[in-house]
Amino acid sequence: MKKRVYGITYLKAFLPFLVIAYHERPFGESPSMILPLVNTINWKDIIYTNILSLAVPIFFMISFYLYLEKRDRIDYSPFKLMRNRVVYFLGLFIVWRIIFGIFDIGQFWNTGRGGIRNIYHLIFAGGDTLLYYLEHMMYYIVFLELFYYFMERFKLKKKVCSIVGIGISVIVLLIVTYFGSETLQIEALRYFSPLGFIPYIFIAAYLYESKEENHRICISITGIIGVICAVAEWKLLLKDTFLLNGYSTAIPSYARVSVIFLSSVIFTVALRVKRKPSKAIEWMSAISLYVYCIHQLVIQIFVGAFEFPQIQYVLVVVVTYAIGSLLQILKQFWREKKEKMKNG
Question: What are the helix (H) ranges across the chain?
């Protein structure tokens, strides 16, 4: 029997507000977003870079955790589940990439950056769109299933292997972040960098395999390390090189160790939530993927419509959730209709 994880429902309901805020910048620009770069930070920098950037990594962990949960419930081959999920995300990506193309969002080919980089952007960034989550999920689900197959095939301890995976992936990211060449940093630390999201596969696996354990001490230590890493990143990573190469801020968005630690803390705490969510929160959670796919379209429509970014942010949220709700209603209607037709 499926055991509800209420904390995941809450996260799915409210994290989209952070995702939209990250793209809409409701508090205006911060010093780390503009040139010439000033090597000081303020509260807006912290909100945009250290708080709002936690949402997407948590969504990845949610997806991995739920996959493992379903993997334990099914009575058929895990590889069939893997195939079904890959086909699901591929279908979503194709549909929404066509819609984004209609609205002229993103580009399939930029003649100014060369063939290899264009292919890189197509494979991992959805052709310069925010659909990279759908693309990455196809690759990561395969990776996660192979990881579990390997552990089960050779009867390895899953928690130990997950910890080793976390350690190796974090060390690799640290080496690239602080010791890699400038060219490597620019490409490997982009918002859609596959390198930046790999640790979450192992973190989700570890948390799933240790879900009955009390992580209180681990949460505290991880949170402290995350804050220390965030301070170090502002001291060592802030540079105009990132802004000059298409980054939205002068510091990488998701491929940072502080993001890994702090988002893991929030997700771990959420897994301990016992309070049952209301129907409204259940509904907001159910349409979260629609919100992810729709909000950039809405932002494009209303860009520059209001002088105050706070008003525009609220408008984008309201319209995005309204469209998402409409799509969910149509989806439910279609399911009910198919069920009636099936039952004669």
Answer: 6-24, 43-46, 55-73, 78-102, 115-125, 132-153, 158-179, 182-188, 194-209, 216-236, 240-244, 257-270, 279-286, 288-302, 309-342
